[in-house]
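Handover notes (outgoing to incoming on-call)

Open items:
1. Putative glutamine amidotransferase domain-containing protein: sequence verified, structure written out, both below. Nothing else pending on this one.
2. Nothing else urgent.
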Amino acid sequence: MGTKKEIRTKSEHVLYLGDWVFHLGPTFIETPFGTETKDADLHFYGERLTEALEHVADVTTLANWELYRLAPGKLEAFLEESVSLIISDVEAKCFHLYPSFFDRSRRENRVVTFPDRLMLIKEWIRDGGGLMMLGGWLSFSGVQGKSGWGRCTLTDALPVDCLVTEDLVESSAGFTPEVLQPEHPAVKGLPWDQFPPIFGYNEVSANAAGEVLVRVKETGHPLVVAGAYGKGRILTYMSDPAPHWGINFELWEGYDAFWQQSLNWVKKQHG
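Putative glutamine amidotransferase domain-containing protein structure tokens:
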């Protein structure tokens, strides 16, 4: 179960989608006739990010499969009470194809549709909502280009353009940041000179709506991009807030402050 809490203790709420995983292993081949898998674990990679934000807001976390199974209207209810939405390592198609519509035992001979949840998010941003879109193997174009964010209905609200192919850029030597807009409220006053190497990121290009705040020093690709859509704001961080790309990032002295400042900016606490 990915939902972290039901009781609200703070005045503001954040909905965090993604960064949960089922881990199955190890697999043993003991006979030519079969294999055996021993042990299984459910792990939340986003625990460190959640802890950083819970200093200032209540956070509800949902795994990709929980998002996929949300009944029509439930995501809208979450958004209505949230100052910010985080999408991290979630394929765009997880927002579509509500699975209960395909239950043959419940199938009725009638046409069925339900609202496009990505369009609902887009309208929510336009009306003043704050989105943080974070990187990973299932973000932006993603591994083998299958994440689908460059082809979905939310695309033209984003401050970055996705590649049409796989966008993963990785190195075991790591990548470091170069701050281009040091006075921007999301990145101001942080110890960027102590930022530890990250092992990868999603390659994108900033579009006319985007302002590159931080780029990857070794390649020049955008790392943090800020933008606006209607009355709302969007911040994209092209790497992972959690392992594996962010296993060192989680140790950064400025980690908590970066996410708190980013939240403050997307929800318009600062100008």
